[in-house]
Design goal:
The protein has 354 residues and is mainly beta. Helix content is 7%, strand content 43%. The protein has three helices and 23 strands. Strand 16 and strand 17 form a beta hairpin.
């Protein structure tokens, strides 16, 4: 849902009574003006209060309205000036078949309405003036550029916003994974329910306007699951939740499980790995054109894996998978890669066998 903050509002009122000779003059008239977005276009909205059935119009513009039975009339006009500028509009009202009009001058400052919505690609919350609320690479909520004087609430909890710098809101991956049943979120067919994986965000502006949107975590749940399961290296993870049956295996694209595991307690073993580099010199090579000489080295990244029992945090197995060396040929092109990595297939087979 999009909620807009309107621009500065001005109110004008005029009431001309009957003349002393009994003749009728013009109807009473008051009007306000504000900046709004109308079908994607910055516009002025004039809200007038006058007699029911009165003809209301703007001098110099081909826009008008007839007051309803309560005397209300609304006129929309595409902004006659650039955004950020001010203008004064002359609002007039007259009775049917009359040429005498009541007149009020309505000043309006044209400012773009402030809106807030969920970005469909990233899941973050963004404001039309550039402020943003989203999950960063460290899996913390990053808040930037909140308007001065505004108060922010995320997931029902108030956030103390720093007005001139970024604000970081801690996120507990274990809490998020358990809340949204996403321990197997990295699996192609995960148990995660897509709909509830959002955190409500509310921003109350200094003028009292309330904006609302949702921080969508669906694209971050795999990373959150990996961070939560990775905590087993520090000690027991959900120790009272039962032994579980699935094996959670760290992969180059996340942490997947060998079976359905919506909750952390559904995991029995967690397998983590880190790459450890080795280097070796191929020797000195000479550029065939410039004759410059340079030393060339090669790097191999071995994969060191550790398996932990989720419930106790105990290390139950570990193994190193060695990467082959790149070949030091007699001629090496600058585009040649002399970096190698251990084959994942033996590592995955070993992890599944635990």
């Amino acid at each position: 849902m999009w909620l807009a903050r309107v621009g500065w509002i001005a109110v004008a009122w005029v009431s001309l009574a009957a003349c002393s000779d009994g003749s009728v003059t013009t109807p009473a008239l008051s009007a306000t003006g504000k900046a709004v977005m109308n079908r994607g276009t910055l516009s002025v909205q004039i809200d007038a209060t006058t007699e029911p059935g009165a003809f209301v119009y703007l001098l110099g513009f081909n826009v008008n309205a007839t007051a309803d039975p309560k005397g209300h009339a609304t006129i929309l006009l595409e902004s006659p000036v650039a955004e950020g500028q001010s203008t004064t509009l002359e609002v007039r009202a007259r009775r049917p078949k009359s040429t005498a009009s009541a007149v009020v001058q309505v000043p309006v400052k044209l400012t773009l309405p402030l809106t807030m919505a969920t970005d469909k690609d990233s899941g973050s919350v963004r404001g039309s003036d550039g402020f943003s609320i989203g999950l960063d690479q460290s899996l913390q909520i990053d808040v930037r550029g909140i308007p001065p004087g505004a108060s922010l609430t995320i997931d029902g909890k108030p956030v103390a916003v720093k007005p001139t710098s970024r604000t970081v809101v801690p996120v507990d991956p274990v809490e998020m994974v358990e809340r949204f049943a996403g321990a197997d979120a990295c699996n192609r067919l995960s148990s995660v329910e897509a709909a509830p994986m959002v955190l409500p965000v509310e921003l109350k502006l200094a003028d009292g306007t309330l904006l609302a949107a949702s921080l969508d975590l669906r694209k971050s749940m795999c990373a959150l699951a990996g961070a939560a399961l990775g905590r087993v290296a520090l000690g027991p993870l959900m120790p009272t939740g039962g032994k579980g049956t699935a094996i959670a295996i760290a992969h180059e694209v996340g942490m997947y499980t060998t079976g359905p595991a919506p909750h952390l307690a559904d995991v029995r073993i967690v397998v983590l790995f880190e790459e450890v580099s080795r280097q070796s010199n191929c020797g000195t090579y000479q550029d065939e054109q410039t004759k410059d000489r340079t030393a060339v080295s090669r790097t191999a990244y071995d994969l060191h894996a550790k398996a932990y029992e989720r419930q106790t945090g105990k290390l139950v197995a570990e193994r190193t998978f060695t990467a082959p060396w790149a070949k030091c040929s007699g001629r090496i092109y600058q585009s040649d890669s002399l970096t190698t990595h251990a084959d994942l297939a033996p590592y995955l087979a070993w992890a599944r066998s635990l």
